[in-house]
Design the sequence.
């Protein structure tokens, strides 16, 4: 009998539902929220309300696209943590209600672990068509809230080898975009302008953080001072402080090169640590995951590093990079095989241990 998982993802500002049958994704529906654009970032209360509006039609469409009826569902999965607590509560309560009504098991999934498992969804690029990484493999997970290097020994056994000690790489992209006056979401726009610029035009510092950990707060500060000084210095000096008009003019005249230079530095920080992790562990099956893995500069550099260091590289398809329920469904499928179920007392959380 087939194992059919209906999964719900609601950790931030995208409501998603997916149906997975025996490890194959049959549908993956995502409803994004445009309401946050005018505020320059996600507003938690508005996100929660939008989830409540979207969740029923999204689940209904996922079932229809998969040609699946309620009686075929083997288990209900949901994102338990980490994320925005209000958003998580909407998905968790809906999933619990479904599991109770259908009398099927409930499976709680760790959002960041699911990003890693997205590399096991049969839709490959970079590593070869329809290939999956062999265990153990390393995964660089990069998103707006997290930056981690994960050792994955099996679909349900993972260990964080290094992570950011302050800001995430995705936040560095978004905050830079805001400093440049770009609309939300700014990360994809930096990627777009970077493709037209000279990545060697401006040099930003690379933080020297011990072991396999990351830090992006210092880089953000240097970018701030660089723009305030209209490119004359990375260090704040009152005598170099440009007027607001001079700052705007400098950004307008050099936008492509600034974006390319910032993106190049963020990518080098990420991949230099990943190289170190590969050398320390001896592992050459290397994966990329998380929303920032959709960045074209990171994807291109990741593949090039793989060729240079003889890595076997894997990147999920674009639709599985950003927040989506397919990765939740895939992670839940492996938990189902190990009878790793949750009860109705499972509580969502803004943070989560591995």
Sequence:
């Amino acid at each position: 009998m087939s194992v059919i998982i209906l999964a719900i993802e609601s950790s931030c500002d995208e409501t998603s539902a997916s149906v997975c049958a025996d490890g194959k994704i049959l549908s993956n529906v995502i409803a994004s929220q445009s309401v946050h654009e005018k505020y320059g970032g996600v507003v938690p209360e508005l996100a929660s309300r939008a989830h409540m509006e979207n969740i029923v039609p999204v689940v209904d469409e996922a079932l229809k696209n998969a040609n699946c009826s309620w009686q075929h569902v083997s288990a209900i999965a949901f994102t338990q943590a980490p994320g925005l607590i209000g958003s998580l509560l909407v998905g968790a309560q809906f999933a619990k209600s479904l599991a109770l009504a259908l009398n099927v098991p409930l499976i709680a999934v760790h959002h960041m672990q699911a990003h890693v498992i997205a590399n096991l969804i049969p839709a490959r690029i970079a590593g070869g068509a329809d290939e999956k990484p062999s265990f153990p493999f390393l995964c660089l997970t990069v998103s707006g809230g997290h930056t981690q290097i994960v050792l994955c020994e099996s679909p349900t056994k993972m260990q964080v080898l290094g992570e950011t000690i302050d800001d995430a790489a995705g936040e560095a992209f978004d905050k830079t975009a805001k400093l440049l006056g770009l609309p939300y979401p700014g990360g994809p726009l930096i990627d777009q302008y970077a493709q037209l610029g000279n990545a060697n035009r401006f040099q930003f510092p690379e933080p020297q953080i011990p072991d396999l950990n990351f830090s992006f707060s210092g880089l953000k500060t240097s970018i701030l001072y660089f723009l305030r000084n209209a490119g004359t210095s990375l260090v704040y000096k009152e005598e170099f402080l440009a007027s607001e008009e001079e700052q705007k003019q400098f950004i307008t005249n050099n936008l492509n090169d600034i974006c390319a230079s910032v993106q190049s530095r963020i990518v080098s920080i990420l991949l230099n640590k990943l190289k170190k992790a590969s050398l320390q562990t001896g592992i050459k099956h290397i994966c990329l995951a998380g929303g920032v893995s959709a960045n074209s500069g990171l994807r291109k550099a990741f593949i090039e590093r793989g060729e240079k260091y003889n890595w076997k590289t894997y990147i999920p398809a674009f639709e599985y990079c950003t927040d989506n329920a397919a990765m939740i469904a895939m992670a839940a499928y492996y938990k189902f095989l190990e009878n790793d179920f949750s009860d109705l007392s499972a509580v969502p959380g803004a943070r989560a241990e591995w």
